Amino acid sequence: MKKPFSTAxxxxxxxxxxxxxxxxxxxxxxxxxxxxxxxxxxxxxxGELSEEEAAAKKKEEEEKKKIEEAxxxxxxxxxxxxEKISKGEKAEQEKYEEEVRKRAExxxxxxxxxxxxxxxxxxxxxxxxxxxxxDPVTGEEIPLGVxxxxxxxxxxxxxxxxxxxxxxxxxxxxxxxxxMPKNIVILGRNGFGTVKVGEDFARSFYELxxxxxxTIAKTKAKQLNKMSLEAxxxxxxGCLIIENAGLVSFDKLVEVIKDSAPENNxxxxxxxxxxxxxxxFFEENADIVDSFIYLIDIHKIKERGMMHLARGYVxxxxxxxxxxxxxxxxxNLKAMEEGNIDRFIKFIDEVMERCxxxxxxxxxxxxxxxxxxxx
Length: 375
What we know:
The chain is α/β, with parallel strands linked by helices. Helices cover 55% and strands 10% of the residues. The chain is built from eleven helices and nine strands. It has helices spanning 4-19, 31-43, 51-127, 163-176, 195-207, 221-226, 250-260, 275-284, 303-316, 323-333, 341-360, and strands at 132-134, 141-143, 184-188, 216-220, 239-243, 268-274, 294-297, 320-321, 369-370. It has a five-stranded parallel sheet with strand order 4-5-6-3-7, with helices on both faces. A two-stranded antiparallel sheet has the order 1-2. The protein has a two-stranded parallel ribbon with strand order 8-9. It is elongated, with a radius of gyration of 35 Å. The relative contact order is 0.08.
């Protein structure tokens, strides 16, 4: 693709050619071109030039000078433009490299923490001792405890390492410290859908009596940035789930936090999004960190964890399925983004719907058993 300067240059060369008629082509970039122009100019003259010829030649020279000045001006301007682009590209590259470095540091830190947790869990399992965790509010070591039975929508996550502990700690701590913010941050991988996890927290909060209403509102961060919070007045006492929360503006989130306070509309805020985007957001906006005490780390969930989730979800909905059904679900899972909970749960919902339709058309009592044909 030609640069703008090259295009202008070619156009002016054509203009030169038209000015000098059908003489030899002139390349003003070379000395040979200039020599050819002079030679061409001299070929048609014998002796002294007439006044008319002299005036024409002077006019040609003036035109040539103007064109050369125009070319020099364009070249100078293009050089400035290229320099600006170069500086802009360099700044973008440096910003990208800094982001990559920060993400790599976070990933290494998370990996080290995970290994430490795994080692502690293995040691506790061997010794048969009670598992100890840190209370997010007080910082004290406390027994992990168990998930209350009222939090039935969260039970399907209990066989997922680390995530299960985060959920148990968060729910028990919220029950214990009812005067503290109940807001939750759900950390996923890029491309994850974790809104369903947020919905399960919202339903469990209502079952546990931690919120007054079963109302759930869902919005994407970019939509929220443009919204008036008057749209959330009907949410009073419920839960607000913000998707891709790393993209929400600081001012808007501060506005939401104030609006969600007990003395105002008294609702819980649940942020879902990619782990590094949210990490960046909280690093840049440290003033609101205290409003989000509970972090649910779900970014490490892989195929095995997803299948645990599937079994728990099928059971939660009151269905049965044989091993061959789950094997077929696993094959379908491979066609999805690894760890995309929203998409996988939607798929299982569709499987259940097909099971219901099949059983509705059959005679007798429906056993709610999923068959391979439903998958």
